[in-house]
Design brief:
This protein is of the alpha+beta class and 137 residues long. It has a domain of 93 residues: Endonuclease III, domain 1 (Orthogonal Bundle), CATH 1.10.340. The chain is 31% helix and 11% strand. The chain contains five helices and four strands; from the N terminus they run ααβββααβα. It has a four-stranded mixed β-sheet with strand order 1-2-3-4. It is extended and about 60 Å long. 9% of the residues are buried.
Length: 137
């Protein structure tokens, strides 16, 4: 692990919880544990995902991106594939694709009312806090 490794503060806290550490690290460490010397993250579906350093991640990302595990189908799909194979990295997507890929923007769409088939089929409520400055009405 290098000095700039994102895993290092979490590993230090898990190994030595009595030492002082940032509150952010203590909260983040709730999702991690040390398993046979490796940092693993507990996923939402209770699987343990091995946390990767930058070099390991670049190797895994290269394998997924270049088609060893399948074709590159976008950032979300690649993130899903990497997690499916039991690995975790805190950022999403391929750095090269983020740098050189097109900027994706959703087209402007006018707002349309939602029409319900039956009266009282759906209920909505708009809540608003205190208005600054105070309105005359």
């Amino acid at each position: 692990m290098t000095e700039e490794d994102w895993r290092l503060p979490i590993i230090n806290y898990l190994q030595y919880p009595t030492l002082s550490s940032e509150k952010r690290i203590r909260i983040m460490a709730l999702n991690y544990l040390l398993w046979n010397g490796d940092l693993v993250r507990k996923s939402k579906d209770e699987l343990l995902l091995r946390c990767l350093g930058k070099e390991e991640y670049m190797k895994v990302m290269g394998e997924v991106h270049e088609g060893i595990y399948g074709a590159h189908q976008g950032g979300r799909k690649m993130c899903w594939l990497i997690r499916r194979y039991g690995y975790f990295w805190p950022t999403k997507g391929c750095e090269a694709c983020q740098r050189h890929g097109p900027i994706q923007q959703a087209p402007l769409v006018p707002m349309n009312p939602v029409i319900k088939l039956w009266p009282f089929r759906g209920w909505t409520m708009d809540l608003i806090g205190k208005i600054y400055p105070a309105s005359s009405k």
